[in-house]
């Protein structure tokens, strides 16, 4: 099969002939029909750059069709439409059994960013599997606990985005922050995750939603998803937390940081009203410590984190697909570009320079 291989950090991906082994016990092989380009893929390639993780096939936001199943797989059969999950749901560990989290102990043991026993080889070398999924490829092999079966009528070139960005932002507002009707919210960063967070705030009944970004071109798009006000930190000579406090009589009820920048995380927390404000860290980074003055928390604010929007994948993803099919969730509006897998480096450039919301790649162009 063809796949986009990252041979080393900070270099363009290369389309290569890659061998993908048949699925082993409890695994399925998926034909990838569509895969989105997410900022986390760029983070691994250009920011964290852990040399031991390369060569690697990136990609983790996708949809496809089960091609074959390994021994012991009863939940899936060839032909099923599915979305691979970078957060597993084994349904057996203490985390899966708790309604309080979507973390899965087995999933982290299995993947920890890369699958311990990848099914990919290229030029005689093992290729690491990113987040247990690796979807910048025509086929991938995934453990059955990291796959969600979805409605067979779902258009895969659209619902692939539910596999990461849309659930991550929307769920951060609805599941993690638990935004209440009539509340005031601020969303920092208007990429796909931020726009999904705006949509989640609106769905939860927020009356005012401040969209915060240094790129004013993003406001029109944010309006589509429910933003009521746009704030560009560059327009002010004082901290954005102070600006928002003045606009909201002391601060917003909820803030969501969707950038992955520790300074923005601090700003988002300090933009919340004291007493009951809740700030959720959604953007991913492992490179820096996050800090604030203790009084910010002592005064009654809550600082929370959210991964994949708190959705348990096998349960939540099919429901989100149903919500889209029932016209209760915007998905098409996130897609600004459609490209083929061999244009993957063009898609990376678009995202690097903020020229897209989501690019969807087709590994099997006609």
Shape: globular
Mean pLDDT: 94
- The number of distinct helices, counting runs of at least 4 residues, comes to 12
Number of domains: 2
CATH fold field value of the largest domain: Quinone Oxidoreductase, Chain A, domain 1
CATH architecture identity of the largest domain: Alpha-Beta Complex
Organism: Mastacembelus armatus (zig-zag eel)
Cofactor: Zn(2+)
Family: Belongs to the zinc-containing alcohol dehydrogenase family.
InterPro entries: ADH-like_C, ADH-like_N, ADH_Zn_CS, ER, GroES-like_sf, NAD(P)-bd_dom_sf
Structure in words:
By secondary structure, the chain is an alpha/beta fold. It folds into two domains: 2-161 and 330-362, Medium-chain alcohol dehydrogenases, catalytic domain (Quinone Oxidoreductase, Chain A, domain 1, Alpha-Beta Complex), CATH 3.90.180.10; 166-307, NAD(P)-binding Rossmann-like Domain (Rossmann fold). Helices cover 27% and strands 24% of the residues. It is built from twelve helices and 19 strands. The strands form three sheets. Strands 4, 6, 7, 10, 11, 18 and 19 form a seven-stranded mixed beta sheet that branches. The chain has a six-stranded mixed beta sheet with strand order 2-1-5-9-8-3, with no helix packed on it. Strands 14-13-12-15-16-17 form a six-stranded parallel beta sheet, sandwiched between helices. Helix 7 (219-225) links the parallel strand 13 (208-212) and strand 14 (229-231). Helix 5 (165-177) crosses helix 6. Its cofactor is Zn(2+).
